[in-house]
Amino acid sequence: MAEDIGDGSTAEMDDYETLMSTTDAELLKTAWRNEKAAPEILQFQAQLVKRAKEQIQLMEETVEEYEESGMDPLTVSLYQMDLDRAQFLLRSYLRVRLQKLEKYMFYIWKNESLWSRLSDPEKMFVQRCIDDMEKHLQEIVLSKLPDNYQSVRRQSVISEEDDMVPEPQLDTFIACKARNRFVSLRLADSERPLEMERHDVSFVLYKVIEDKIGADIDLV
């Protein structure tokens, strides 16, 4: 009987943790952690960001309404704390992505897979930066060169053979944990798969789990 009660309690705790991990606040925190730990830019969480912005707007209106109605200051401060937390998570998530765009913009621009992961505003930002840099290069450098050297094109400047273009280091070890109750990972240097139970933490090559991030695996 004791074993049955224990098993039931464990199952209920798992269900509770699953429910809590699916709230937008937790999902945004997870997306932020994944983005921060991953060496390359990940898929933009468009729907999650949209919901977060809508919730932040609603919380701002609620806090303003409570302040004007003279509600208890402690209650207002609690709502304000939730608002500040939501704003921090959203800004941190977007800031981490912006840092990657600034660092790897040329690499992302020429990589169709990574380019497709960006939001429309992010694509506009990268394209504008590249256009501005090309214009600056043309005005400051190329225009001062002899005529036969002024035909240098952008594609040659950021070609795949150009070692000056920064690239994310994918051959790096990162810490990850299993999101689901059981995850099996195929390791390149081992015949046996790495088996992880829920919340187990392991250090593996990023390449091994890059297609499982956000589905079966989260980064820590």
Brief summary of the model shown:
The protein has helices at 2-21, 24-37, 46-68, 73-109, 112-115, 120-140, 154-157, 206-209, and strands at residues 173-178, 182-185, 194-197, 201-205, 217-219.
Question: What structural keywords apply?
Answer:
220 residues; Ribosomal Protein L9, domain 1; three-stranded antiparallel sheet; 8 helices; 10% strand; disordered N terminus; DNA replication complex GINS protein SLD5; nucleus; coiled coil; DNA replication
Task: Report on this structure.
- The chain is mainly alpha-helical and 220 residues long.
- It has a domain at 169-220: Ribosomal Protein L9, domain 1.
- It contains eight helices and five strands.
- The chain has helices at residues 2-21, 24-37, 46-68, 73-109, 112-115, 120-140, 154-157, 206-209; strands at residues 173-178, 182-185, 194-197, 201-205, 217-219.
- The strands form two sheets. It has a three-stranded antiparallel β-sheet with strand order 4-1-5.
- Strand 2 (182-185) and strand 3 (194-197) form a beta hairpin.
- Helix 4 crosses helix 6 (120-140).
- The longest helix has 37 residues, at 73-109.
- The two termini are 38 Å apart.
- Belongs to the GINS4/SLD5 family.
- Pfam families: Sld5.
- The GINS complex plays an essential role in the initiation of DNA replication.
Topology:
Layout: H1 2-21, H2 24-37, H3 46-68, H4 73-109, H5 112-115, H6 120-140, H7 154-157, E1 173-178, E2 182-185, E3 194-197, E4 201-205, H8 206-209, E5 217-219
Antiparallel strand pairs: 1-4, 1-5, 2-3
Helix pairs in contact: 2-3, 2-4, 3-4, 4-6
